[in-house]
Amino acid sequence: MTILVTGSTGHLGRLVVERLVARGAAPADVVAGARSPERVQAPEGVRTAHVDYDRPETLEPAFAGVDTVVLVSGSEPGRRTPQHRAVIDAAVAAGVGRIVYTSIFGGDGSPLPLAPEHVETEAALRASGIPATILRNGWYTENYAADVARARETGEIAGSAGDGRVASASRVDFADAAAVVALDDAHAGRTYELAGDVAWSYDDLAAAIGEVVGREVRFVRLTTDEHVAALQGAGLDAGTAGFVAALDGGISAGALDTSDRTLSRLIGRPTTPLVDGLRATA
């Protein structure tokens, strides 16, 4: 069975390729697709292919002879839906047997501003008729790398998430899940909500960052308006500042708070603890 992973020079795609081989896939049966294939760093024997979401003419040739495509969602909000549709259309045209898609936790029930494009992609997959496995990934612990760096200097993290809790996991945990389901067609037609084993508060996050950076760190609670103003003061434009604050608003509303252990059951081990994930980013 040949498995192609898109976005293989990205943080998640690279790890999916590595975990496929670690989980027993023959390197020759794994294809690392990327916009710049020459930049791919993969286990020896893994093939590469030119896969550019914005250049549909690269897609169908890359998918020829591929059984499963792991569609790692695009990284640019506002462009994901047409990019993903191009991948889906090319996979159907090439006769790909299944798509594994990295969606968002909660799907159409998520209040996060990232959700609509993922929901649209899930709808496009259903309409395509191609068998699919939907991985609704929760939050990556690595999303807090900048907070770790900032807290090292200031002793503070700030945001408008309030008492919201986040069941984060490290990218390698989510990549491992993608490898598990890509290797077994029994997962076709399934949707999995994936999150870390422990849901933590931002006070917990501050304490964990403090352990990593070796100093006391406190969480400064901001209102949404204060958060937007602080982000603009740090140089973000109004649209981006509003988007980031809206993410915290979704977290405050419980978008990422769960006790579901589907991720750890899929990968056969506990998810990476918060402190360990943060330490890896530092």
From TrEMBL:
Pfam families: NAD_binding_10 (PF13460). Residues 7-179 form the NAD(P)-binding domain. PANTHER family: NMRA-LIKE DOMAIN-CONTAINING PROTEIN, QUINONE OXIDOREDUCTASE 2. This is SDR family oxidoreductase. It comes from Agrococcus versicolor.
